[in-house]
Amino acid sequence: MNLAPTSQLPEATTTLCIVLILLTPLSIVGLSLVNTGLTRSRSAAHTMTASLCIFAVAVVTYFVFGFAWQSVAGRPEHTITLAGRPWGWIGAEPFFLRGVKFDGSAVSLVALLQMVSVGLAALIPLGAGADRWRSGAAAASTVLLAGWTYPVFAHWIWGGGWLAQLGANYGLGHGFLDSGGSSAIQVVGGLTGLSIAWIIGPRRGKYLADAVPAALPGHNVVLALIGCLLALIGWIGLNSAGALLFSGIESSRVALIAINTILTATAASLTTAIVTNLRLGKPDASIIANGWIGGLAASSAACASVPPALTVIIGIVAGILVPFAVELLELRLLVDDPGGAISAHGVAGLWGVLAAGLFANVSAATAGGASRSSSGNGNTGQLLAQIIGIAALLGFILPVTYGLNWVLNRSYRQRVAMEDEWQGMDLHELGGSAYPEFVTRGDDFVQGPGTR
User: Fold this and answer.
1) Are 303 and 186 in contact (CB under 8 A)?
2) Mean pLDDT, contiguous 10-residue spans, the chain (452 residues)
3) Which of 344, 194, 341 is nearest to 264 (CA)?
4) In this structure, is residue 391 part of a structural domain?
5) Does residue 444 lie within any of the structural domains?
6) Based on C-alpha coordinates, what's the Rg of the chain?
7) What gap in Å lies between CA 114 and CA 301, rounded to an integer?
8) Does residue 284 lie within any of the structural domains?
9) Contact at 8 Å (CB) between 390 and 354?
10) How far, in Å, CA of 267 to CA of 109, rounded?
11) Residue 358 sits in a domain of what CATH number?
């Protein structure tokens, strides 16, 4: 259930929401450390610098026109009338947040939360393009994400758009459900990462001539694991604030959301540790980090509407999916994803969206208000609404994202030259190394007569 956009929240709820939103930047810090730790040492400074710049570009772009196209439920939007019913497809707000009154209303808090959320979504592709993605190209790609693909899909689910209207207009449960952003943040970011990885290709030395992948381990898994712990705090804020603003939950359920978020991440990481131990003989720390992030990504959609026991199941499935998705992408599809972003955010996020249709009890989660759906068709309709949302992500967002970045690549090459990649992104783009007192290892140890 969406809050009325012009509503003034109770003072206690407003204060709680602001505190939660102020926690969300820790998800940015955490993901930046994960991406940096899982890339090579001679790209460490570049990855952190690019994270800062990408976040800045995303926030400015969203401020200029992203929010105008996302909007909030009940405010101006462009609609299409089908079968006598209006279906919203994009917002119609003034640019530069000129239509927002910063008075503590739900609208002003949504704008604040979404500035961080769009930055988080924009950081996800960096993990997939690390060690070879030019900073300027990453910034340009971020403009496309923050200015178009993210706000359009976010309007569909949070701005009163057609996916949110599936309940009221078509009797499918309560419409598409995603309290914390498994779809708009995690999957949109993951699909953008997949597009980038396809377009720029694998790192030099990743695949032998017979397509056998070589190991290019991250340089500092400790950074990645610290990033996981910081990301957890940010995700608690993200999921809780999103549920308050987009699902209309009672503030007393924030404790449940925090518990569900923690349980999903821990269950996923433990499951990933078991899976990698069984398959590799020892637990893999980097994939365990991906499993942790995958659990967080999967937790967001139904964080306010499932009991803790079902949350553990969601985490276990995410923990199984992530390592197998990493293997599928690397070994079968020849997609080089250094940070595991596609698996941890894209695949796990899709599972989280589907799990919301399987397990969520939306009526119990809302603050006693009227349902968006009067059909009473239970979880069957809700599951179908979630599947339609997944189809929109894979059938519209992915090809549009790939097409926009393909056009960008034709006019402004996104990948650095091979010799510059060999030199290292730190020296090539920043003129200095993250670790100037040490000699960083090159690719010689993985190169051979059959590498490419």
Assistant:
1) no
2) 58 96 98 97 96 98 98 94 92 96 93 98 98 97 98 97 95 95 98 98 89 90 98 98 95 97 98 97 97 98 96 98 97 96 98 96 54 50 97 98 98 94 93 80 48 48
3) 344
4) yes
5) no
6) 21
7) 16
8) yes
9) yes
10) 31
11) 1.10.3430.10
